[in-house]
Design brief:
By secondary structure, the chain is mostly helical. It has nine helices and no strands. The radius of gyration is 21 Å and the shape is elongated.
Amino acid sequence: MYNPVAALGAFTISILEEMGGMALMFLQTLGLTFKPPFRLRLFIKQMEFVGVKSTLVVVLTGLFSGMVLALEGYYGFRKFGGESLLGATVALSLVRELGPVLTGLMVTARAGSAMAAEIGTMRVTEQIDALRVMAVNPIHYLVVPRFWAAVLMVPLLTVLADLVGIAGGYFVGVILLHIDAGVFVSKMKELVELVDIINGLYKAFVFGAILAVVGCFKGYNARGGAEGVGKATTQAVVISSISILIADYILTSLLF
């Protein structure tokens, strides 16, 4: 007989177990970071995979986000004659919120899913067990390079998304909607402060850590062959995306 209380309890326990497992993997990763051997080549390879190969999707996301912000903001500000604030609004929205969040989500979809799939495939084909047999710590070999690559590259991609998004907002606001370029830029310089940019980058660091830990954890614990790898990959993307949005709210309430 189905017992909803028991089902809820089992679900809660499974969630807590996964959160604990991710926390332990995170702590293991930090502990192994400065332990030799230092696999610089693997780290650079992961930086290329997470950062360079995500550039196009981040640029497109940032560009059209900035353009949409400018377009929607213009018609809102025009109702009360506040068009001069469009540049500042676009820039603040991007550097504080949309830049890091959208970058984190896009990198999760492209690189986080690949981390889960790659490590999951190694798990079900017993390659991780082979690493242990060769006295190689799988966390040190597989997780540490991916973790730090994501932590370092997501903020850099966020800066790129911010710049491209502001350029897109400038194009729509100044070129298409004929707002005075001097007013657009001056209000942006007046109202956007360095702390806004820095706090946005803090978010990006956290989002990079989240997507790396979740992707590696789900892949590392994949079971059940190809079906299990697919399930782990899907769960990694969903959990990472939700976690990024939850962390965004928490960080926004703390930083701003």
